[in-house]
Amino acid sequence: MTTRRISRRAFLLGAAAAGTGAILAACGAQTPAQQPTDAPAGEPASGDQPAPASSGKTTTWWFAWSNLEAAVQKIVETPEFKETMGDTVLEYKGSVNSEAILTAIAGGTPPDGGSNFDYPNFWARGAVIPVDDKVAASSIIKKDDMIPALWDSVFYDGKMVGVPGIESFIWWGLNYNAKAAEEAGLDPDNPPQTWDEVLTWHKALTKFDAAGNLQQFGLDPYDAMAGEPDFGVQSFGGFNWWDENSRTINLNNDAVAEWLETCGEFIKIIGPDKLAGMRQDENLGGWGASYNAGIQTMIIEGYWHPGETQIQKPEIAQYNRATWAPVPVSRAGKKIMATGAHMVQLFKDGKNTEDMFRVAEFLLTDTALDIIFAEVGWITGKLSWLEKVDPNAYPGLKFYIDAPDQVDEWIIGRRCPIHWFINTQKAELAEQVYRGNMTGKEAAAELQARAEAEWKAQGLS
């Protein structure tokens, strides 16, 4: 197995550069240094194992990130997996970048399965096959045992384009360092709920030394999940900018303008050049790295943050808490949440997709889910398994375990075929706003214009 590392931030930048060959990103890509002792311990019944694979073959699985490797190594050694696969050998390859997977697809030599890549794009290209019939015949994969919105997220054009699993839960929450908050004179038991309140915390938590060098700050409002248009528009407007039914984009609106103006204030307090300089440090520029280093004290992240932080940086994780992502005062009290499955997609030109499907099935057994939770901190929204998860296994996790039943506004994220193009353009225009070169309204109009031009250029009209 490869051990090359790809950070989440580097992966996002690579995805943007790849245009329509972009890579989906959701979690940090660092190999865990330790595992918790209180992961759930469910054992699937023998009748809930995938059917044994055909013998004497290999099946290949490529994965975009590096941090699943330790879990895969343990999964393939379990008696249940060996029984399922028979003599078939799983060839797993992690840290696969967008260029490599696209080259393989174009050359007709893709792996049998792929995960954590650009799912809708591969489907639109005709590179993957639907799995509806296989799932219908499965005794493992059950619609009524999954969070409904999560299940819905694997369907495009009415077809199931992959098998959900690996890490597939909920995406948004404000995580904060309770120790830093208390030291700043804030009440960690009364976290901010609106953007105005978060800005107050941000000011209190941002510190400079005598020479004006940045030592600590509150929130980078474009870091991690907060940087995506799905989050910004839902938070400030309460709607999805992408209409999947009409296939139209709505970014030239007041919600986008307010989002860019409001978040710009956070960066002005830090100093645009100071923040950019910090992000150039390879130890601080990765997804979640500045939070793990204790420099950033708030971050808008998904359910994976508590577990990943505990595994990667337990001395910071012990102070981690989580609450609802902020909304403006005009929408105070709204509880917003996104979801979307990572999945195993089966490639049309794969040589052994039948056995790869058995691997995908096995990843939804309690045995595999337990290992992934312990090794990486990841969760899949399988309802029967969630009941066994210790909500206090990682500091801050309980918020995410309890959240699904309390959500007011759900969104299935990253559905637009040019999501990553728009995300890159947003980053450029957001900088123009916080540097005072454009207004939020002007940036929203320009973002819409760029999106429409790209949509037309790709022949998606």
Write a structural description.
- With 461 residues, this protein is an alpha/beta fold.
- It has 2 domains: 8-170 and 341-394, Periplasmic binding protein-like II (D-Maltodextrin-Binding Protein, domain 2, 3-Layer(aba) Sandwich); 174-337 and 416-457, D-Maltodextrin-Binding Protein, domain 2 (3-Layer(aba) Sandwich), CATH 3.40.190.10.
- It has helices at 8-17, 69-75, 79-85, 98-106, 119-124, 132-136, 148-152, 178-183, 195-205, 229-237, 254-270, 272-280, 289-292, 304-312, 314-317, 353-362, 366-376, 383-386, 397-402, 419-434, 440-457; strands at residues 58-63, 89-93, 113-115, 128-129, 155-156, 159-160, 163-164, 174-177, 207-208, 214-219, 242-243, 248-249, 296-300, 320-323, 336-339, 343-347, 409-412.
- The strands form 5 sheets. Strands 1, 2, 3, 4, 7 and 16 form a 6-stranded mixed β-sheet that branches.
- The model is unreliable at 1-47 (pLDDT under 50).
- Proportion of strand residues: 5-15%
Radius of gyration: 21 Å
Task: Return the CATH class of the largest domain.
Answer: Alpha Beta
CATH architecture call of the largest domain:
3-Layer(aba) Sandwich
Structural class: alpha/beta
- The dominant shape is globular
The tally of helices reads 21
- Average residue-wise pLDDT: 90
Helical residue percent? 25-40%
Write the CATH homologous superfamily of the largest domain.
Periplasmic binding protein-like II
